[in-house]
Fold these 4 entries.
Entry 1:
Amino acid sequence: MSITIAIPFYNAEKYLAAAIRSVFSQTYEDWELILIDDGSTDNSLRIAKSVKDSRVRVISDGKNKRLAARLNEVTKLAKHEFIARMDADDLMSPNRLEIQMNFLKANPTYDLISTGTYSILNNSKLIGFRGWKAENPTFKQILKKELGVLHASILAKKEWYERNIYNENLPLAQDSDMWLRTSKTNDLKIKIIPDLLYVYREEGNITSTKMLKAYKIERTIFAKYIDNKIYKSIFICKSYFKTIVVVGLNRTGFLSRILHKKRNLNVISIEQDKDYQSILERINSTKIPGID
């Protein structure tokens, strides 16, 4: 079974080659890679076009349509029945796709599989990890954020994306909208495994401005999907409270430190450190045709 890997990118010249390298390092080799430019103004597009491999397609129309539109575009462009997500500044373990595909092959009732992640700084230093073990989360579990679905680590059936498109009107939180919408219609047949198969660059990705915008969008999502008026009021009030807290923490300078501790487990075992270093070594030793 073949996989379409999608990396949408916008001004990602610093990390794009490393992300592509981690694709070429995969133990599962039956794939195509779609590099889809969202109107970059740096050297990202040049890097993408430098790759010389028949499995790689570069898509560029010079426009900035944002992530949701590009992901919907990927679904239309994908040649294969499975689609894997990845962000342009991240990495993935060499056995990510093999483990995920083996699970979906053995468990055809599931449409998606998500994994745990290592968290790193921009210099690739390991600073934490997070991961959940669950399956088929309910609407209430997603609403309460009791389970973490790591968006960029998803491997899914193409047909699932065809019936569940991203909301292109949302500048942020498209994944939250997707999980709430599909769980409410009982169409979120997903397995979440704790295996640390994805590597996420934590540094600089969460800012107060971004968070405040996300909370504002979050309230519109709550208003749209929560039917119970009391529940709706509670969650909207909580969102306003979080907004106030973020503003206060940002003024004191403690926001980034608290966020990191909340999102990750910081006590890294010797085995996890060895595993992460092994991932880096495998990726760094992989050659990209046309670049190396």
Entry 2:
Amino acid sequence: MEFEIGPENQGTRLDHFLTEQLVDVGRSRIQQWIRNGHVLIETEPTRASKRLSAGDRVEVHPQPPSPLKAFPEDISIDILYEDDNVVAVNKPAGMVVHSGAVAKSGTLVNALLYHFTGLSKLGGDLRPGVVHRLDKMTSGVLLVAKHDKAHQVLANQFQSRSVRKIYWAIVHGQPSEPPRQGRPVEIEGRRWSRLEMPICRDVRQRIKMTTHATGREAETNFRVMRSTSEYSLLEVRIRTGRTHQIRVHLAKIGHAIVGDRLYGAPGSPKGLEEITRFYLHASSIGFCCPKNQNEITIQAPLPREFTKLLEQLGL
């Protein structure tokens, strides 16, 4: 495809111009073509941010999309539990759950495909077995369905909010109980603080979520397990499972998770070594067996870097 730039597009970024012209092609795919040298200005490769000049001749050599199917990779995984229906793995911080626009390999799904011959297909070719997800930098227990029936039963449990999810988080400061935005509740004989703030995507930073009245219902319960004047260890239970829910809610009350720079935490807190992850860990999950409805609870031990930081902070 060829385009000749007219005066009306003088000064327009190349990627913006092509996004307007190629309405059926996503911007990320266009940017990938540019990075890989498949878009030329006056027969020369260029940058996505290149400002166009009237009279420029733009050549586009479209490339087929990458195959939308995950492939197996020999990556070790920590299996916490396995039966004929489900696998529970201990996902390390830094591992993406499944392939997407950024990660094509090295994901948990790539590892699962290597270790297991059969996984549920309800999630599609890119997400075999995936019933729920954890953020890249969140560690801990994650459930994987071995077949479609188990996947459907587990998905129904998540949808009905009967799955019991518990996290540990190291946060800045010492939260009051309850915080101003929350209210006290009693859960299993213990006092917790409940946060109920709807969550939606941030209109200015699309990689972030935010609290807003127009968002989807989100409920987070937490209690302070141990604390100093500067840091606290929290036990967190979530009733809903919105994107970044715990991170957003805790940041909103002024207690961002240590290392979570996206939501306002400093990258290198005073007196600590450089932080390479945020300290949120999915410590346990409880559900009913897809086959016989027996209750199952899986716990994931804290990773070494998590326990090391607790020691450093005196928690």
Entry 3:
Amino acid sequence: MRRAFWLGVGLGGAAAGGALLALSAYMAHVITRPRRSQPAAAREVAAELEDVTFRTSDGLTLHGWYWPTPQARAALVVAHGFGMTRVELLELARGLRSCGYAILLFDFRAHGASEGRRSTMGFQEAEDIVAGVHFLRGHPDLRGCSIGVLGISMGGAAALLATAREPAIGAVVADSAFATLHEVAAGGLRALYRLPPFPFAPLIVHFGEALTGHRIAANRPVDAVAAIAPRPLLLIHGVQDRLIPLSNAQALYAAASAPRELWVVPDVGHASAHHQMPDEYLARVDTFFGRALTPARP
């Protein structure tokens, strides 16, 4: 009897462990393969928009829209979040263009129309932003223009990593960025699936590394943010963000060096400040980039 009991316990434990691994592997697959949607052609969206492509350092072709403006004050790369495309940030880009900035909107790897099979949750996406900056630097209409980056959620984390690496980026705005990939994995498990961070978060990250072929556990903007100085940094975060809690922005701010700013937005959830208060959002971002970026010479 005792033997049968322990055999049953062992089999039950093995089944539970197998189920845990299978669920973690499935969630890693889902997280690294965002659902795709194809943006419309530029001419169907706005007459001034141009369809563009550019290549990343690891050989992927990314698709985007370039939105010129006469005598641009500066140029901005605008980077979307996980599971989004450039379309979701079109109105924000329109507002920034009305303030005198030339805009590059693009789809991250494995999103929208861009190449790539797996998302790395901001780790390799930082190189996508760097490739976009190089595209703007090489554009004949933008000679002498300073370049800034604005990223939201995963795009914000990638923007911090990219700015730390790329000296051509003159200033950065990170909205709802995470401090470490573990933090966003833990927050997502709690907020979306009501699952405990342990043991799921480390297992999902482990399987994510196996699927993407990259050490995505090293995706830690909090370790890179100090390298942005002396270029200006603006962090934006909603108090009601359940996916990536406000503590992430506070950790990033503490790790960064001056000049840095933190706008904590009351009564706002994840990555939604630009939707809920578009006028104030645009005014704050414009003021920040207006101070931070050297105006283009005529």
Entry 4:
Amino acid sequence: MTGLDIAAPILEVDPFSTAVLQNPYPFHEVLRETGAVVWLPAYGIFGVGRYADVRSILMDWRTFCSSAGVGLTNFRKETPWREPSVVVEADPPLHTRTRAVLTRILAPRELRKLEEVFEREAEHLVEYLLRVGEFDGIAELAEPFLVKVFSDAMGLQKEGRREHLLSYSNIGFNAFGPRNALFNDAIAGSARAVDWIMANCSRALLEPYGFGAQIYASVDTGELTEREAFLMVRGFLTAGMDTTIAGLGSALLCLARDPAQWEMLRQEPSLAQSAFEEALRVEAPIQTLFRTITRDVEIAGVMLPEGEKVLLSLGAGNRDPRKWQDPTRYDLTRRSGSHVGFGAGIHGCVGQIIARMESNAVLGALARRVRHISLAGEPEFRLNNTLRGLSRLPLRLRAA
């Protein structure tokens, strides 16, 4: 920003460097402790990492809008890599209308019909993995479970689900960051995945019983246009699984590392949701989101000018000692429901109820059937500009 008088402390760190993405915790601490608002000259943006400020900004959509993009790219100045979402990258009144459709389709009373399906699939998979003994908790548990139950609920065709859904989602989350090697590598050779997604967002290829068909039914009632319905289905296919895969993987890692927490869950399987929520807090799947400032606004004595981007570090906020006692510790007894792992405000994750149901099914099945869970090798995190999740999680199970 040429000619701007920056009153915020300057933090000479690239939040999208390989070093930070591999181990974000030192950056989180520096971000929080340098100031309520900092200036990140690597990208000419403001940064916020304290829980109270992150949450406050997420709640104030009028001052900090999403319609100019929830990634680094400013849609008012730059061209997005694909047509913007009509839910995530929209503000009222468009967001109000599109969100209302999803809220109705994803109402708890409607989703309860899927609970038995999720639990049955989880029981079958855990039973199989117990016979295997050692396996990869990502490639052989989290990914296949989520791909199957999510795709079935959406009404997707079976051919190509896992390959193309995960590939396309990898592009989408990398696109929220800079146009660096991670983004370029994700998009290179992705034509087949993009084509598959575009085809499977169409009404003609969606099974009549799924969420996708229900979204298109809103076209017939006049609530949505045909294009809006297409973009809403595409949004589901972009972000409907990877965040839950990452959160479930983190929960499995935390439980495998801490026998006391695992025993607590085993004795009380109803703590499955707490196990998932605490994993989302300790290891936020979506590490960063962006907002664009719509009017000059002051935070903690720092003036943030209209039109500029601000990075919100959900990962830093979720480990802020100002909010959480002993914040790095994974603790099933913690009341962690106010974490910002799902965002907050009108743009809070619309699919979070499904994510909780899916994770509860898996963690509950494990708690009922498994006596002991432990690491069978070194876990590995994959690099992504936005999403923090495991690429490999070697686990060993012993039956109860």
